[in-house]
Amino acid sequence: MSKFQLYNIVLKEILNETRVYEFDLDNAFFKKIDSPEVQIGNVKAMVSVHKKVNTYELSFVLDGIITIPCDRCLDNMEQPIHYKEKLLVKFGDKFSEEDEIVIVPESEGAINIAWFLYEFIVLKIPMKHVHPTGECNKTMVGKLKKHITRQKSDDDDDDDTSALEFDDDDDFTTDEKQTDPRWDGLQNITENN
What three-state secondary structure class fits 33? Predict the structure, then answer.
């Protein structure tokens, strides 16, 4: 028996009706998937399957919370997941994906949606995921502040222009008042053409 047997939807059994399936995606689910992006979470998934003429329309609604590391302090943070998606499935000779249609072998007559559920969750993780302002690990933020140099003012003789600085809310900001003099020569190339 497959570890994802629970997530099989037998399409051949669905005739002229809409069937609704509910799944609790908990820590055990994420552990079975064994992927580095998400390993802790509690997401409710509702999947409605409706048969059309020669396709099946699967409507997914995902709602819950996953735990991922903060990009700034590396402590765990909660990321809400609210997602809706549709997937069209039809029968064919072998499993494949064409445009926005998933083809499953007619001989099997079923689709396993475990990986689709996981992908939909991962798609909702923002590129930059950090704690809300002021909630990062104070010790780690203090160490980061200590190791990041501050931007020099325009009247300083130092050429250090690639520095980051912190604001009072423990967030990173970039200060781009000065440019690297090596790039200034390249700027003249575009201005002279």
Answer: helix
